[in-house]
Amino acid sequence: MGAGVASLTPERGHAIFWYNAVRHRARMKGTNKVANLVYLSLGANLGSRHNNLQDAVDALGEVAAIEAISPIYETAPWGLTDQPPFLNICLKAKTLLDPAALLVTCQDIERKFGRVQLVKWGPRLIDIDLIYFNDQIVDDNDLVVPHPQIDQRAFVLAPLADIAKDFIDPENRLSVSAMLDKIDASGVVRLEGLEGRLQKPAELAWGVKTYVMGILNVTPDSFSGDGLIGESEFVSAVVEQGKIFVDQGADILDIGGESTRPGSQPISEEEELRRVIPAIEALSKHIDVPISVDTYRASVARAALQVGARWINDIWGMRMDPGMAMVVADASCPVVLMHNRSKPKDVVQETRLGARYSGVYYENLIEDIRTELQELVDLALEAGVTSRHIIIDPGIGFGKTVSQNLRILDELDRFMELGYPILIGPSRKSFIGFSLNLPPEQRMEGTAAAAAIAIDRGADIIRVHDVKELARVAKMSDSIVRN
After folding, report:
1. From CA 316, how far away is CA 295, in angstroms rounded?
2. For residue 391, which of 416, 356, 409 has the smallest C-alpha distance?
């Protein structure tokens, strides 16, 4: 990266991140804050090269939504050849930062992980270069974009072609693949297997896009009929479905082993562990997005984190098991705190449309839920959970009537005032079925409408069964409400 920009302290770096998050939390129609498309090149040839790259990707995930990570390539050094070979990757990302702020952030990440540049093109623990910023051309003392001599650098073009082969260089008007075809890439070797892959950050850059959480139910009794536990080889089924979801646009996968539909029966801790742990362990070896475990048991959460889960999604907001908060705090992982007033006595069963809640009383629906969510947040903070790891969920379908669920969606923006990212889970739920008089398998369009409204009202994550369709809904909604 270019030199001459003042150092960015950790405090200032987090201020930039939180400034953009706050801007999103308070965003209004007509804002000119837009998400910028960027491509970055990362390289490392000292220390644990693979870990250095993963750490840098995780750090960049705080200020950019990482949309794609290329495979890892091992490459001969360029410019100064008397040094160890490099591992190189490229990233596609969206960020609210402008080019100058992104440059400063990248330089700070390099320094954070120990980079000291003594020799031009010399060995380094981590190197981060801004290759493209939208289709802009930037040329000043501190930053040049597109990156100089990009058309001569096979170690950049090879991984970049994996994620952006048709991107047109704004200076020479050639595509990435065309530039790669013109040079010798024989010294650039793509690594295979796990050593050739990195994971997307467990933490997401809020405000840049709406994230899609795909639902993987490892249960025999899911209300929507998508439970995978009935398969003879259910672990293989989970892995296959998870890979499909990621290909269709899922940013997070949420695995649950106990049905939470109204009126469902709880299962034992042993049975939940039997269902979710092998599924998470297997899936984590095949996908590069965060895996969330949908559980309210501390023991299940702890075991899931040990085998590859990176988030906790607790439908009881860490109130059901007093040990959950300690697990989350110790793991320093994101946690979804959901509002929940579910009581079996309030459930009404109907043969065709399923179960719904009836007669649930709130003195003031939105204010009551806001107050109770704030109580969950306060309990989490007191237990040592980091504020930037907290995500709130108003709990659509959990102890709310049909009309109450509809009102929560319509007034979702009032939960933005709490200052935390919002997850919403309307997918195929009974309030849609009773509104449209449709069974669960016919509720995709209703889910799409609910998701679009939620995104307009400030949702950061939508939790869905129909990933392909809802990822498109999210992308189109973002095009409208996030410019």
Report:
1. 9
2. 416
Grade residue 288 by pLDDT with cuts at 50, 70 and 90.
Answer: confident
Nearest to 295 by CA among 325, 268, 272: 272
Q: Where are the alpha helices (DSSP H) in 29-175?
A: 49-60, 99-112, 154-164
Gyration radius (Cα) of the chain, Å: 23
pLDDT band (50, 70, 90) for residue 187: confident
What range does the domain containing 335 cover? 211-481
Are residues 311 and 351 located together in one domain of the fold?
Answer: yes
Give pLDDT tens digits for 78-120: 767 777 899 999 999 999 899 999 999 999 999 888 766 555 5
Distances in Å between the Cα of 246 and the Cα atoms of 49, 71, 468 are: 26, 16, 9
Does 206 fall in a domain?
A: no
Q: Which pLDDT tens digit goes with each residue over 217-255?
A: 998 754 444 555 554 578 998 999 999 999 999 999 999
> In this structure, are 353 and 243 located in the same domain?
yes
Give the count of beta carbons closer than 10 Å to the beta carbon of residue 184.
7
Active-site option among 302, 457, 463, 482: 463
Is residue 3 situated within a structural domain? no
Q: Are residues 183 and 249 in the same domain?
A: no
Same domain, 153 and 250: no
Identify whether 429 is a catalytic site residue: yes
The answer to whether 92 is a known catalytic residue is no
Supply 55's token pair.
């750490």
Indicate whether 295 and 151 sit together in one domain.
no
Note the pTM of the prediction, 2 decimals.
0.80
CATH number of the CATH domain containing 127: 3.30.70.560
- 163 and 259 part of one domain: no
The domain boundary, picked from 196, 230, 246, lies at 196
Catalytic residue among 429, 443, 457, 482: 429
